[in-house]
Amino acid sequence: MRHRKKSEKFSRSRAQRKALVKSLLRSLVIYDRILTTESKAKAMRAWADKLITWGKKGTLHERRLSYRLLEDHDLVKRLFEEVAPRFKTVSGGYTRVLKVEPRKGDGAQMSLLEFTKASAIKKKTKLAKAKVAKETPDPTDTPKKAKAKDSQKISQPKDKKQFIKGVKKIFKKDNKNK
Predict the structure, then answer these.
(1) Distance in angstroms (rounded) separating the CA atoms of residues 151 and 172
(2) How far is CA 142 from the centre of its chain?
(3) pTM of the full predicted structure?
(4) Contacts 24+ apart (CB under 8 A), 168-174
(5) Above 90 in pLDDT, residue 27?
(6) Which burial class, exposed, middle or buried, applies to 108 when counting CB atoms under 10 A from its CB (0-12, 13-18, 19+)?
(7) Which of 103, 129, 155, 177 has minimal CB crowding within 10 Å?
(8) Confidence of residue 155 (pLDDT cuts 50, 70, 90)
(9) Which residues contact 67 (CB under 8 A, 6 or more apart)?
(10) Helix %, strand %, coil % for the chain, to 5?
(11) What per-residue confidence (pLDDT) applies to 70?
(12) Does domain 14-177 match CATH 3.90.1030.10?
C-alpha cells in the first residue's frame, strides 16, 4: 500500500531523487537562494523548512539528521550557527518561491527558492518605528531647526532607478551561482 508515500518523482529513480534533494539543499544553505524549476522549488521548500526547524532545536539528534541530508560538517555548522538563528522567533514560513522568466531552452517555468530574511524584516520594522519617533516634533527644537530638517527630507527623493538596480543585483548574483 502507498499510504503516506506521496512525493514528486521528477522522472528519476529513488537514488537520483535523493541525490537531487541533497544537492539542492546544500546549494540553498550555501547561497541562501537557488534558481531551479518551479516543481523542484516547491518540493524543496518542505525539506528546507524541515532543515531550519532542526537547526532551531539545536540538539545533537537534529545535527545528525541534518548531516544525513547535507553530508558536510561545515554546512551543518553554518545551518545551526548562521541560518537557523535568523528564524528563532518565527514559526514556519522560512522559505519563499518567486517565479521568474521561463527557461529559454525548453520553456520550463523557473523559480527562485530563497530563505526569507526574518531578522531583516524585524530590523526594518524597528527602524520604521524609530523613524516615526524621530519625525514627531520635538518641543525643544526652534523653528529654524525644524525648517532645516524639512528641507533635508525634500532634497532626498526616493528613486525608482535605485530600486531597479537593486533588483538587477539580485538576479545578477543568481547568474553567478549557476
Answers:
(1) 36
(2) 45
(3) 0.64
(4) 171/100, 173/33, 174/33, 174/35, 174/112
(5) yes
(6) middle
(7) 155
(8) very low
(9) 73, 76
(10) 65, 10, 30
(11) 95
(12) yes
Helices 38-57, 60-70: crossing angle, 10 deg rounding: 150
DSSP strands (E only) in the chain: 33-37, 95-99, 110-115
- Between the CA of residue 156 and those of 69, 151, 176, what are the distances in Å? 48, 9, 33
Q: State the chain's mean pLDDT as an integer.
A: 81
For 56, half-sphere exposure in the C-beta direction (CA atoms, 13 angstrom radius) is 14
Name the packing angle between helices 14-31 and 60-70 (round to 10°).
110
Q: What is the mean pLDDT of residues 141-151?
A: 52
* Amino acid occupying residue 54: W
